Amino acid sequence: xxxxxxxxxxxxxxxxxxxxxxxxxxxxxxxxxxxxxxxxxxxxxxxxxxxxxxxxxxxxxxxxxxxxxxxxxxxxxxxxxxxxxxxxxxxxxxxxxxxxxxxxxxxxxxxxxxxxxxxxxxxxxxxxxxxxxxxxxxxxxxxxxxxxxxxxxxxxxxxxxxxxxxxxxxxxxxxxxxxxxxxxxxxxxxxxxxxxxxxxxxxxxxxxxxxxxxxxxxxxx
Length: 221
Description:
Layout: E1 2-5, E2 11-12, H1 16-27, H2 34-41, H3 46-56, H4 63-81, E3 87-88, H5 92-101, E4 106-109, H6 114-124, E5 134-136, H7 149-157, E6 167-170, H8 173-181, E7 186-190, H9 197-201, E8 207-209, H10 215-219
Parallel strand pairs: 1-4, 1-6, 4-5, 6-7, 7-8
Antiparallel strand pairs: 2-3
GO biological process, one term: DNA repair
GO cellular component, one term: cytosol
Protein name: Phosphonatase-like hydrolase
């Protein structure tokens, strides 16, 4: 099984989610930068991301304020997605089709809630059962990244007993940590999204790639 993150890994939305998260936080008077948002929030469930971003600035924020930011974020994101240009990352569909030919399960997992993730799938015309085998979101598990729960949930869904039969691919350090915590054979960083090569490297991934198709030879191992 291959478990892929969505935004920045298989979906190209030009960091719209993190730009919107940045906007929501700034609207409440907290002067964090987009770089702060990407560094401390990438890959995480979005309420958790807000808390991590604000904690990184040494701000102590009331939980009710975080809840308000999160609600604003969801509203702003719904508005943004109505006009945003969303596309597949380069070679994403070719990658999915190559995995299907090898009889490898394809799972998308994400720190988005179910509504946001399904909206993305609809815009891309990707369907569970045709293009991918499953979609696992932050709403499906009790604990989110870097905990391994989403990957373990997917493994259980398809009767996969060992992480040695799983590869995780993501564009953030927290994606890599998630794969490591699930015992995945490969925890692969990809440079098409939120984090730089240097940021990915600090998470000690098994590999770093620039394109999804570069993963295929690794799976032959």
